C-alpha cells in the first residue's frame, strides 16, 4: 500500500546514522540562512543537487519525487521576482533548492526502521518524564499501516450500499459515515491490544 | 486450569449483564452457548480481565483478574469474534513478532517462536501475507497462532467459526480440537462443542444449565423454542 | 493516554492519509494546493478532540518525516517539511489542537443542533484556517523572504476553499457526534 521513499543502496549517506543526517540538514539549512552571497547558495545547490541525483535511482524517478516541491519553489521564485529584487529572489530560491535536495537525499537514504530507532532514542527523555512511551509510537504507526486498507474497504462498501439502494453517492457527504465506520472498531481493537498484553510491560 | 468465580456479578451502568454467580472451571474443553445478549461474551471477557467484576472476584490459576491483571493476560489468551480487529500489524509475521517482543522476547527469539507458532497450525504460508488480504478462515487461524505464540495455558474463543465456509470451519474446528492448551469456546455452532467436557448455557445474564453437551444443547433448544 | 486513545489517534491518522487520496486541486497562481487532507485538521479536532487530534497529526508528520508518501498525491519525505510549505504541515498539529480545544468548550451533548453546528464551524475556522495559516505563512516568509503582507494576500485566495471545507467538516463532525460521539470523552 504505502511504499517507503527509501532507495536501496550503499552510498556515503546510506552509511551515516539517521540522527547525524537530521543534524546535518539542520546545521546546513541554518548556515545557508546566515548568508546572502549568491555564490555560496549556488555552490550549495550544486553540491546537494549532485548528491541527490547521484543516488542509485533513475533520473526520472528522482525528478518525479521532487516535482510538487519544485513546482511550488518555481511559483514562489516568480512571485518573489516581482515583489523583491531579482538578486534576493534568486538567493532565496537557490537556498530552498539546496535544503530540499539535501532533505530529499536524507529521506532516500534512510530506512524507516532506522528512523524509528532514532525516534525511540530521541523520545527517551520524554519517556523518563512519563509524557510518552516510545513503544506506543511504534504501535500507533503499525496500526495506521494495518488499518489504512480497511478504510478504503469501508469507502467501497459505502459506495456499493448507496448503489444498491439507488442513491447517488457523494464522496464528501460520505466522510461522516466513513469516519464512524472506521472509528467504531476502536473499542474492539483496544480490547484486543490489552488482551494480548502488548502495552503491559 | 483452575478458574474460580465467587459471588461474581457484572453491571454496565444500569444494565445487569451477569447476575451474581459462583463457579469453578477445571475441565480441558468448556463450551458456552446461549442466545444473543445472554451474557456469554461478558462472561468470557471476565476470565481474561477485560471486563472487571462489579462485585465478587475472579481468579485464574490462582491469579486475581483485578489485582494480577497483567499476569492473567499471559495465562489466558483471547481470540476475538472478529480476529481482523486483533491482528494489529500490517503483516501476519510482523504481528506475531510484535506481540512476542511486547512480552519481552529478544527479536531473534521472537522470530523463531513466531515461525514455530505458524507451523504449528500449518499456516507458514500466511507469514508474509498482509492481514487485510486474508480470508475469514485464514484470519481466524492467524489470530490463534498469534495469541498462542506467547504461551498461554488457556485459550478463550468468541464464536470462532462464525461466518466460515464449510472447508474453513473444518480447519478451525480441527485446530481447536487439537490444541494441547485448555479451551473455553463460545459458539453458536453446536456440533463444535458436542464432544466437549462441559457446557454452560446462558440466558438473560444467568447460567441456567451446566453439564454435559447433549443435555445442554437440549436445554438451549428449549429456551430458543426450536 | 489509554489504549483506546492510542487506537483512535492511529485510526484517525489513517483517515487523514486516506483523505489524501482524493485528488488535490492546484491553483496555478498560488503556491499552496487545496487538499481534502488539510480538512483533516478540522475533522480531527472536532471529532476526537484537542489532545488526540493533535496526536494524530504528530503521527502523520512523523510518517512524512520518515519517508512514507502519506501526503496528498503520494508526497512525503523531509523535503516536504523543509520546503517552503512545510509550515502548513507543522501548523496542522497546532491547528487540530486549537480546533479541538474550542470544539470541546463550545459543543456539548444535548445542545440544540444549531449551536453544535455553529460551535464546530467556529472551531474549524479558528484552528483549521487561522492557526494553520499563521504557521504556514510564517515559515513561507522566513524560508523564501517573501514580505509578510504579500504572502498574506496570496493566501487569501485559499480562504473561499477553506471555508467550504469548514462547512463540510462541520456537517461531518455533527454527524459523527450524533452517531458515535467521542468528543465528550476527550483524552
Report on this model:
The complex is a heterotrimer of chains A (about 200), B (about 230) and C (about 190). With about 200 residues, chain A is mainly α. Chain A has two domains: about 10-110, no CATH class; about 130-195, no CATH class. Chain A has helices at about 10-15, 20-35, 40-55, 60-85, 85-110, 110-120, 125-130, 135-165, 175-185, 185-195. The relative contact order of chain A is 0.11. Chain B is about 35% helix and about 25% strand. Chain B is an alpha/beta fold and about 230 residues long. Chain C is mostly helical and about 190 residues long. Chain C has one domain: Arp2/3 complex 21 kDa subunit ARPC3 (Orthogonal Bundle), CATH 1.10.1760. Chain C contains eight helices and no strands. Chain C is globular and about 50 Å long. The mean pLDDT of chain C is about 90. At the A-C interface, α2, α4, α5, α6 and α8 of A face α1, α2, α3, α4 and α6 of C.
Describe the protein's topology.
The complex is a heterotrimer of chains A (201), B (226) and C (187).
Chain A: H1 12-15, H2 18-33, H3 38-53, H4 59-83, H5 86-108, H6 112-122, H7 124-128, H8 134-164, H9 175-183, H10 186-195
Chain B: E1 3-12, E2 15-25, E3 29-34, H1 40-48, E4 55-60, E5 63-64, H2 69-75, E6 76-79, H3 92-102, H4 107-120, H5 136-148, E7 154-158, H6 166-177, E8 182-186, E9 198-203, E10 206-211, H7 213-224
Helix pairs in contact in B: 3-4, 3-5, 4-5, 5-6
Chain C: H1 3-19, H2 39-48, H3 50-65, H4 78-82, H5 86-106, H6 113-144, H7 148-156, H8 159-179
Helix pairs in contact in C: 1-2, 1-3, 2-3, 2-5, 2-6, 2-8, 3-5, 5-6, 6-7, 6-8
According to CATH, the fold-level topology of chain C is Arp2/3 complex 21 kDa subunit ARPC3
The SSE string of chain B, one letter per element, is: EEEHEEHEHHHEHEEEH
Global outline of chain C: globular
* Global outline of chain B: globular
Question: Hey, roughly how much beta strand do the residues of chain B contain?
Answer: 25-35%
Q: Estimate the strand proportion of chain C.
A: under 5%
The average pLDDT score of chain B comes to 93
Share of helical residues of chain C: over 70%
SS field, number of helical segments of chain C: 8
Low-confidence stretches of chain C: none
Strands ordered across the widest β-sheet of chain B: 6-7-8-3-9-10
* Major beta-sheet overview of chain B: 6 strands, mixed
Structural class estimated from helices and strands of chain B: alpha/beta
**Number of beta-strand segments of chain B:** 10
Q: Report the uncertain regions of chain B.
A: none
The CATH topology of one domain in chain B is Rossmann fold
Amino acid at each position: 500500500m504505502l511504499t517507503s521513499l527509501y532507495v536501496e543502496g550503499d552510498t556515503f549517506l546510506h552509511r551515516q546514522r539517521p540522527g547525524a543526517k537530521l543534524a546535518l540538514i539542520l546545521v546546513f539549512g541554518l548556515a545557508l540562512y546566515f548568508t546572502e552571497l549568491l555564490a555560496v547558495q549556488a555552490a550549495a545547490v550544486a553540491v546537494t543537487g549532485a548528491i541527490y541525483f547521484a543516488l542509485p535511482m533513475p533520473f526520472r524517478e528522482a525528478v518525479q519525487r521532487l516535482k510538487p516541491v519544485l513546482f511550488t519553489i518555481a511559483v514562489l521564485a516568480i512571485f518573489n521576482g516581482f515583489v523583491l529584487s531579482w538578486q534576493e529572489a534568486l538567493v532565496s530560491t537557490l537556498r530552498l533548492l539546496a535544503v530540499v535536495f539535501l532533505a530529499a537525499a536524507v529521506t532516500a537514504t534512510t530506512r524507516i526502521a532506522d528512523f524509528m530507532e532514532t525516534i525511540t532514542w530521541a523520545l527517551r527523555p520524554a519517556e523518563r518524564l512519563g509524557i510518552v512511551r516510545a513503544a506506543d509510537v511504534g504501535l500507533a504507526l503499525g496500526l495506521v499501516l494495518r488499518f489504512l486498507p480497511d478504510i478504503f474497504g469501508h469507502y467501497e462498501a459505502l459506495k456499493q450500499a448507496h448503489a444498491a439502494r439507488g442513491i447517488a453517492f457523494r464522496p464528501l457527504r460520505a466522510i461522516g459515515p466513513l469516519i464512524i465506520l472506521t472509528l467504531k472498531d476502536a473499542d474492539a481493537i483496544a480490547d484486543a491490544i490489552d488482551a494480548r498484553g502488548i502495552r503491559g510491560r | 486450569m483452575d478458574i474460580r468465580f465467587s459471588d461474581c456479578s457484572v453491571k454496565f451502568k444500569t444494565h445487569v449483564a451477569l447476575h451474581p454467580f459462583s463457579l469453578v472451571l477445571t475441565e480441558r474443553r468448556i463450551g458456552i452457548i446461549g442466545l444473543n445478549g445472554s451474557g456469554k461474551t461478558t462472561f468470557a471477557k471476565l476470565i481474561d480481565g477485560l471486563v472487571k467484576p462489579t462485585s465478587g472476584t475472579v481468579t485464574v490459576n490462582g491469579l486475581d483478574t483485578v489485582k494480577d491483571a497483567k499476569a492473567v493476560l499471559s495465562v489466558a489468551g483471547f481470540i476475538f469474534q472478529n480476529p481482523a480487529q486483533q491482528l494489529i500489524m500490517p503483516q501476519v509475521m510482523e504481528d506475531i513478532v510484535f506481540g512476542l517482543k511486547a512480552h519481552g522476547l529478544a527479536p531473534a527469539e521472537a522470530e523463531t517462536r513466531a515461525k514455530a507458532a505458524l507451523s504449528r497450525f500449518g499456516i507458514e504460508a500466511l507469514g508474509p501475507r498482509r492481514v487485510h488480504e486474508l480470508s475469514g478462515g485464514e484470519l481466524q487461524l492467524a489470530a490463534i497462532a498469534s495469541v498462542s505464540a506467547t504461551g498461554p495455558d488457556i485459550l478463550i474463543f468468541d464464536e470462532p467459526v462464525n461466518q466460515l465456509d464449510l472447508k474453513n470451519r473444518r480447519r478451525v474446528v480441527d485446530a481447536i480440537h487439537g490444541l494441547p492448551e485448555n479451551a473455553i469456546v463460545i459458539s453458536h455452532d453446536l456440533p463444535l462443542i458436542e464432544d466437549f467436557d462441559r457446557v454452560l448455557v446462558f440466558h438473560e445474564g444467568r447460567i441456567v444449565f451446566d453439564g454435559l453437551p447433549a443435555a445442554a444443547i437440549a436445554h438451549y433448544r428449549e429456551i430458543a423454542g426450536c | 493516554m489509554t489504549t483506546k486513545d492510542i487506537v483512535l489517534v492511529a485510526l484517525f491518522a489513517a483517515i487523514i492519509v486516506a483523505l489524501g487520496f482524493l485528488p488535490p486541486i492546484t491553483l496555478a497562481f498560488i503556491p499552496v494546493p487545496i487538499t481534502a487532507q488539510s480538512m483533516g485538521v478540522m475533522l480531527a479536532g472536532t471529532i476526537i478532540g484537542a489532545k488526540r487530534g493533535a496526536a494524530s497529526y504528530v503521527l502523520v508528520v512523523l510518517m512524512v518525516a520518515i519517508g512514507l508518501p502519506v501526503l496528498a498525491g503520494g508526497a512525503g519525505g523531509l523535503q516536504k517539511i523543509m520546503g517552503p510549505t512545510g509550515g502548513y504541515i507543522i501548523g496542522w498539529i497546532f491547528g487540530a489542537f486549537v480546533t479541538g480545544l474550542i470544539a470541546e468548550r463550545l459543543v456539548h451533548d444535548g445542545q440544540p443542533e444549531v449551536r453544535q453546528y455553529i460551535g464546530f464551524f467556529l472551531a474549524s475556522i479558528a484552528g483549521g484556517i487561522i492557526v494553520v495559516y499563521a504557521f504556514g505563512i510564517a515559515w513561507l516568509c522566513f524560508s523564501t523572504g517573501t514580505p509578510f503582507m504579500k504572502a498574506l494576500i496570496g493566501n487569501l485566495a485559499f480562504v473561499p476553499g477553506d471555508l467550504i471545507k469548514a462547512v463540510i467538516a462541520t456537517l461531518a463532525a455533527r454527524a459523527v457526534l450524533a452517531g458515535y460521539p467521542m468528543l465528550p470523552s476527550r483524552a
